[in-house]
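ARCHIVE CARD
Drawer: 12
Card no.: 0347
Subject: one protein chain, sequence and derived structure
Cross-reference: see card 0346
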Amino acid sequence: MIEILLDPLTGLLDGLISGTIAFFAVLVFSFFYRFFTNEKIPIFIGIAFGLGFWGFTGGLVDIFQQPTLGGAIKILTVLIFVVWGINTGDKISAKIPKKGIETLKGIGYGNKKFTTIKLPHERLIFDMASKPKLPNSLKTELSEREFTLPSDLLQETIIKRVKRRLITDWGLGDVEIELSKDGKITHLSVSAKDEGLSVILPRDKIAIPIECELLPSTLVIGDYVTVFLENNHIIERIEVKGIDEKNKIITIFCDPTDLEMIRNSKAKLVIALPIRVPKPHELSVENESGSIEEFKAGKISKTLNEIGIDGKVATKIINMVQCKLYKIDPPVTIAIIKKVTINELKKQNPEAANMLRKRKIWK
């Protein structure tokens, strides 16, 4: 009789001991599950974890090898403790404020803040003097691209990281960046990698070296020149693609039909030409949506005509507006264009200027 009662009592005692161990294991698991997911752990998963933890210690294996009434009581007791541990861990975790999650994350990662560095529009990505030019398609790809960096970096480090990304990821040859105090890019110049002539030579063109008697000082690749040859032929406004200052030789691209004209003839005079003055449409305008488009004088002219300004006066006003806009760093906003236009119109017709205040000039 005593042996019959001893087996269940032993099973109950072992169940209390094993159940206590499983209880704390499942409690911790349930606590962190609720803490990070904000959901209660499914009972089935909790029981599987608890019994698995107990089985890992060897207790569950022994029971299945020698099934007894005491073993069944032991399993039942452990299950009760496991379910209790699931509910207890869930309740404890639910009472912890949500900000505890952020606090715990902060221990591992810190409260690091980030800043976004945005590249300018493709119109404001300039070529570096005397270096290979970047294709327009690549400038378009880089246009207004953003980089996310830690906000605690020094300005010099930010510049180095952006340059490294551009050179490594896009294969640029060189990059010049200037940042303002608030982390905005105020100037960006880029160049392609130095490559052979065959890579940059357009189709149906040939590269020809021309020996010169004299060269303008500080002449660099990318300058435009007019070349007067000894045979009295003139090459009008051509871009210098290569230069050998020591031997006074410049390289240009031209049509194959010009080969006979240039062959065996030196240049007796090379004149460097200025870059053409930008035309009005080369101004860039930032719309309210943030997109960039070309300056179109026709939009302003149409609005001025609608309020009774004749073509001659409108043209004069638009020319004055353009002169003032060129002094402003691009892109200019529509609000600035309207303000400058109203100020110029006020000098010619104050009444019309008041009418213009109530109208859109860029539609």
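Annotation on reverse: The first helix runs from residue 2 to 37. The radius of gyration is 39 Å.
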